[in-house]
Amino acid sequence: MRVASYNIRKARGMDQKRSPERILEVVSRLGADVVVLQEADLRLGPRPTALPRDLIERETDYHVAPLAENDVSLGWHGNAMLVRKGYELGEIGRYDLPGLEPRGAVSALMTGGGEPLRIVGVHLGLLRPSRRLQLEMIRDVLDDDHTHRTVIAGDFNEWSARHAHGPLEPSFHMVPEQRSFPATYPVAALDRIAHGPGLGLVDSGVENGPESRAASDHLPIWAEFEARPDESHRATAPLRRPS
Known about the structure:
This protein has helices at 20-29, 53-59, 128-143, 161-165, 210-215, and strands spanning 2-7, 34-38, 62-64, 80-84, 88-97, 103-111, 117-123, 149-155, 173-174, 191-195, 199-206, 221-227. By secondary structure, the chain is of the alpha+beta class. The chain has one domain (2-227): Endonuclease/exonuclease/phosphatase (Deoxyribonuclease I, Chain A), CATH 3.60.10.10. The strands form two sheets. The chain has a six-stranded mixed sheet with strand order 3-4-2-1-12-11, with helices on one face. Strands 5-6-7-8-10-9 form a six-stranded mixed sheet, covered by helices on one side. The radius of gyration is 16 Å and the shape is globular.
């Protein structure tokens, strides 16, 4: 199963033009089974989505995970997920995160493709003390439930690999970093993916084609996983795309 993370900056590209079509073209190129989005909704008022739902359904192979609490947003605190058609979704979660800024995390259980996989989407705060508290809370919440294999993906807003990974130890392993920001000349690995027990990393990368460099100020990253036997998980069925 391939998981991707993409901060779409409300569909505003490096030319300062908003283009949902351009974002969805990049998303389709990723070949991911689930795409975790950040800044998917506008910030003010009822937070309307930057990616029209009907455009997603019409132009892509994805449907929108039901994370929003109203009819106009795509997600929650700007965090959204696009799930490849054919997968089913189980339990949905929304978490308020500590810190000086209003931040949240979301989760969705993907089923219908063999072994269930829990995906957690995050967009962490701008201040390092807040980010540490936020990651510690996420780790603690997930540690309370060892039922499902888990991937955490999102914009960690952290330039230091040590500070990005430390709060998640020892429960999670960070995928090798991919420089994703700024999109035109990436020097920082702000976007990251981590995985818990029972998962093996097959491959990972960053989508850095010309379309991606123009569509947002972040490049999308991806990681591909396979299920591996782990004593904390009874099931050993492989992760696979639904037929």
